[in-house]
Structures are given as C-alpha cells and as structure tokens.
C-alpha cells in the first residue's frame, strides 16, 4: 500500500512538473520572440546609422554633381488657404563616383533627363507649399528614393535644389 501511494504521488508530481514546464516554455518563447523583435529593430537602426556614416565619409573628390540644367515650375498640392501655389526648382543630383554602377549609369543621365525631371515633378507636386517650406529634406529624400528605384542603383546619393522659389 505504501509503495503504490508513493508511486501515485510520484506520478502526480511528474505530471505537474511536465505541465508547468510546458507552460513555462510557452511563456518564455513568447517573451523571447518579442525580445528578438526589439533586438532586430535596434540592429537595423545601427546598420542604418552605419550606412549614413559611410555616405557622409565620402570625400568631395568621390562625388560629382549632375545638373540637368532645367527650371521646373511645379503646381503644388492644394493647401488649407485655398490658393494655388507653385514651386520653381532647379534640381541637381549628387553622385557617388566610387559606386560600382557609376561608370555605366552616369553616361545615361543626359539620355534620361526627361525621366529625372518627371520624377522630381511627380514627387514635389504631392506636397503643399507649407510642407515644402517646412521640411524640404523630406521632399529630397522622397525624390532620391524614387530615383534610386528608377535606376535600380544607389549611385545617386543626394538631391539638391540649387534654387527654390515658392509662390
């Protein structure tokens, strides 16, 4: 009788231990997944900062400016004041001469001048005059992303507005 009672108590303790271990594993896995997500986001942020630091380390001799020599008059998105606003922009592109695609793609810039100016127009006309005045860097970043997508390369590293007038 004592032996079977000890066996039953041992069996109950083993089953309880197994159930508690399963619960603990489920809880730990969920917290590990959320911890991994946070760690991944931090790692991506560090990589982004590293990429920006590498870009800023380019010397002036490693870059060149492409000037399509066009004056773009762009109708801006309607703002709250109800008036039509226009922006007059002289865009330029900053190019990384050390990029592997530079030799091949820099020769095509003049051929695709119309596509480049159309890309600039498409992005700028999505902004209001207030947005363009308050955050021109956002507009330039959007144009840069669109141009890099168009060329399927990152040899263009910046967009410059040599002159901007907003009316």
Descriptive report:
It is a single chain. With 167 residues, this protein is α+β, with helices and mostly antiparallel strands. The chain folds into 2 domains: 1-57; 60-166, Band 7 domain (Tetrahydropterin Synthase, Chain A). 56% of the residues lie in helices and 18% in strands. Strands 1, 2, 3 and 4 form a 4-stranded antiparallel β-sheet that branches. The model has no long low-confidence stretch (mean pLDDT 85).
Brief descriptors of the model:
5 helices; 18% strand; 2 domains; alpha+beta; single chain; 56% helix; elongated; Tetrahydropterin Synthase, Chain A; 4-stranded antiparallel sheet; 167 residues
Write the layout of secondary structure elements.
Blueprint (H helix, E strand, L loop, with lengths): L1 H55 L6 E4 L5 E4 L10 E11 L5 H4 L7 H12 L4 H6 L1 H16 L4 E11 L1
Antiparallel strand pairs: 1-3, 2-3, 3-4
Give the fraction of residues assigned to helices.
Answer: 55-70%
Number of contiguous helices: 5
What is the third-level CATH name, the topology of the largest domain? Tetrahydropterin Synthase, Chain A
- Overall shape: it is elongated
What CATH architecture of the largest domain do you see?
2-Layer Sandwich
Structural class: alpha+beta
Q: Average pLDDT value?
A: 85
Largest sheet: 4 strands, antiparallel
Number of domains: 2
Number of strands: 4
By CATH reckoning, the class of the largest domain would read: Alpha Beta
SSE pattern: HEEEHHHHE
Radius of gyration, taken over Cα atoms and rounded to an integer in Å: 29 Å
CATH superfamily of the largest domain: Band 7 domain
């Amino acid at each position: 009788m004592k032996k079977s009672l000890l066996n039953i108590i041992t069996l109950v303790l083993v089953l309880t231990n197994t159930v508690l271990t399963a619960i603990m594993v489920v809880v730990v896995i969920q917290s590990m997944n959320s911890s991994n997500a946070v760690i991944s986001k931090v790692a991506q942020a560090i990589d982004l900062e590293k990429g920006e630091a590498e870009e800023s380390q380019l010397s002036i001799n490693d870059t060149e400016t492409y000037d399509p020599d066009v004056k773009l008059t762009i109708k801006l998105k309607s703002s709250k004041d109800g008036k039509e606003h226009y922006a007059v922009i002289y865009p330029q592109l900053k190019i990384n001469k050390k990029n592997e695609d530079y030799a091949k793609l820099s020769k095509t810039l003049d051929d695709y001048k119309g596509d480049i100016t159309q890309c600039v127009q498409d992005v700028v006309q999505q902004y209001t005059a207030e947005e363009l005045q308050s955050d021109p860097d956002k507009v330039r970043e959007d144009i840069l992303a669109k141009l890099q997508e168009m060329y399927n390369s990152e040899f263009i590293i910046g967009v410059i507005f040599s002159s901007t007038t907003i009316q």
